């Protein structure tokens, strides 16, 4: 028997191929979280996948607060997620829409390179923000190769084998005796069709003023862009080498630095990303250096201002959009307008959790910078100056403000509820996300109950109270949204134990203080409302529940909601290739075996309540659900039923005293 796996058939004919292996359904991951908020730096409205906190810090900055404004909660939320054991997350940075007109604030820093030709090359920071004011940009010229060439009578320059000089390369040609100054020439054409090991003939754009027929020293010159970020002491400089200085070069600097991501695609933090990119087209610029290859220092054209004080609801959502079904994970560049903020994150097909830590952000008036200390210093002598001393201005540190909207204000609370409703409606419309909400801080139990009345869906879960974490800069503890800790707990429970396990009964790692006191009475009331509460214990703050905000008893538990979502996604995504296959008994049997194997594996993890497989699930794909009338319409119906296991929440203990004086303890677990 000849199989296609052993060798490729060499003649036409009929061959026996190995049997087709059966597709195995694997549970879709739902532990990846999506975070949307305000960051110090980084791409705007572009989902970036990160694997660890250092990825976030490198791309989006650290914990620096907005100047004179609220605390950016996004970095604290992402840090809390990874501290709990989260494996991966997507981050979207929001920013206000670009302003137009003469009063518009410059959002992106620009740098000027004064070229030897007298022209100016303009670079701009890849992302907006005043962090780019601290960049130092230099364009260096270096010799990558130095070889001996042969300049022929016809002006053709022949280089030795192994020389890399593609079209558009800059060559510094000189006489070995150095009697004449070196000349810079461009490689106009290169004959690279010769066999390997052959000399490389290069046609120059102009013949150098050298004697033909003799040996010539040829140096291949490339550009190196050095970018130093002074805002991150100790960070490595960005060095981009091997840049071409002509548009015909394969690594033309005008395109090699361009940071392009296809519309609708997500970026990975491990992907290369440059700090600066060309501001305009550089095709008409002459980037040739002086023969001495002197470096060019970039100059900041104008300092930019931070625009975080202009962020409003329009930065988080597509204002005016009510058709949530248009926000689809398969949407492409044909959409009339690109989505922003939360709506853009909803198009990432990998995430199963959605957190918006800065959802309460509101526009504010930036505080003026603190006055600089007087430069005059006292003279080291006992005599007095003739001029009276100016009074030294006092410096008062501005305490960062937590959040933007104040939930104690009825108007702000209505705005906050409207934004959270938008997040929940988006998660419900997507059908694959669970929105993790934060109960507004500083509310009483009665006010929390009123807030809770606005939500009734299994695609959302709420958490209370806010938990504070220690500031790395020895400052006061910073309150962090409790949903960030919950997202990490949910992720690590799924990675460690599996999705069927309820994501609760875990400590919030890194929390040092709760912003509200939760008594037993208030805990009882909040639990009945479906609010997941952190309670203080001897070793920290423990998450005591994992409920959704649904009033439907079948979807009260978060683990049940996520289990059903995972099953729907697995069948939808991994069985899509079955479309247009013949609707035969073989196909029905194959799908039955595939789904049964998936459910059997989940049953071994404790996902179902039944004692046997027959009590836990069923799969029906036979003729009873696929009559000839249905098959004639091109339909294939599969009925799948499961009995999810509900997590244990209560343990009742009965203590009875026997007549002989002994005590009997009976536990009733529910």
Automatic annotation (TrEMBL):
Which ranges carry the Tail sheath protein subtilisin-like domain?
433-548
Q: Which residues form the signal peptide?
A: none
The record places domain Tail sheath protein C-terminal at: 550-655
Q: Which Pfam families match?
A: Phage_sheath_1, Phage_sheath_1C
Say which family it is in. Answer: Belongs to the myoviridae tail sheath protein family.
Q: What is this protein called?
A: Phage tail sheath family protein
Origin organism is Microbacterium alkaliflavum
